[in-house]
Amino acid sequence: MTAPVPGADGRSDRPRTATHYSVAPEPETPEGYVAPGMPGAPVAGYHPADEAAAPDRGSRSGRTAVAVTLAVGAMLAGALAYGLAPHRAAGTVGWLAIAPAAAIAWPLGRLGGRGRALPPLGALLSAGALFLGQLIGRTRRLHELAGTAYGDLLRDALTLWRSDRRLLDVVFYGIAVIGGFLLTRRTAARD
Question: How many CA atoms lie within 13 A of 125 on its CB side?
Fold first, then answer.
């Protein structure tokens, strides 16, 4: 260690030199302090007292029930829109199978969260929207062309749906199922 040498009166004319230590002195920090950016450091703006006083945003099961209800409503609305498309667009409307899938996936993902059952449910509801939309379209066509009574419409629409199936319909169902699954998973809100 080097230190100034005091003169006769205890003062020295030489400038004060640096003090050298063999071991660094302990920093003067408060007890329990963790440097920012280090593991265990508190997040800026985080106050545990505010979390306890925050209002309850609803239980997970309550939000999931609302999400499934809204997704079923979106499935029915998508099926109606798909089935009531103009006849001249009937050949190209199949590519719109992704639209009901997106409408179903949004409430499931945003409100339902990251539940494991929600992406398969989104895929199933998307395929259901496509199926119902095709049945509504066939029913409408039967009613306009043949004037079939409403009691026989469903049976005749199912028969017509079976006879009109093409390979491209399988592609549309694949688009609906994969789109419903992936879009539900991607829109899922992290809790």
Answer: 33
- Between helix 60-83 and helix 98-112 the angle, nearest 10°, is 170
pLDDT, tens digit, for every residue of 48-74? 555 555 555 556 777 888 999 999 999
- Report d(CA 171, CA 174) in Å as an integer: 5
174-190 in b/e burial notation, b at 16+ Cβ within 10 A?
ebbbebbbebbbebbee
Cα–Cα distance measured from residue 105 to residue 99, given in angstroms and rounded to the nearest whole number: 10
Q: Give per-residue pLDDT as tens, 84-106.
A: 877 656 566 666 778 888 999 99
Is 150 within 8 Å of 73 (Cβ atoms)? no
Place of tokens 């079939």: 148
Q: Rounded to 5 degrees, what angle do the CA atoms 187, 189, 191 make?
A: 160
Least trusted range by pLDDT, from 29-33, 118-122, 140-144: 29-33
Question: Three-class SS of residue 147?
Answer: coil
pLDDT at 19 over 70: no
Residues 34, 169: Cα–Cα separation, whole Å:
61
